Structure formats: structure tokens, C-alpha cells
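Priority: low. Protein: Ferrous iron transport protein A. Input follows.
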Amino acid sequence: MFKFNLNKLTTSLDLLKRGEKAIIVEFTLNMVPLKLLEMGCLPGNEVELVQIAPFKDPMYLNINGSHLAIRKETASHITVEKLTHE
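Result:
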């Protein structure tokens, strides 16, 4: 399993709101789709929720400058740490 750094601001990726940014912490899936890893969806990388399609699926993400669409169900297995604006 992939891990980064857990703290109390963690949530699953599917619960982010449009425009929110977070750091990927871990995957709760036993088998992470290879395409996610190839596109930079790795612990420690920043992710931004760009858009949610009608009916809430798929979710359009910006991960280190790469645009990626993933199913909400898959996003629910990705733990992220929300970035706060200071």
C-alpha cells in the first residue's frame, strides 16, 4: 500500500469541492489502476478538483499539470490531505 503522511485534515478525493487542492496521502485499493500511477497520481503529489460531470461522475482532476478523469467510486479509495489557504 502507498502512504505519505496522515493527519486530521484527511478525506477521500471524491469529497473535494470544485477548485479545492489536496496532497495525495494513500490508496485504500489493493490494486491501484496502473493508468493512475502513470499519470502522476502518487502519494505526495498535489491534486486539484477541476470539474465534476453531470450526475457527479466522472471527476476531472489536475495532477501536476496532467488532466485526468476518474470515476467517483475510484476517487473514494484515494485519501488526500486538504491544502489550507493561509
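The domain at 10-63+70-82 is CATH 2.30.30.90 (SH3 type barrels.). The chain has two helices and six strands.
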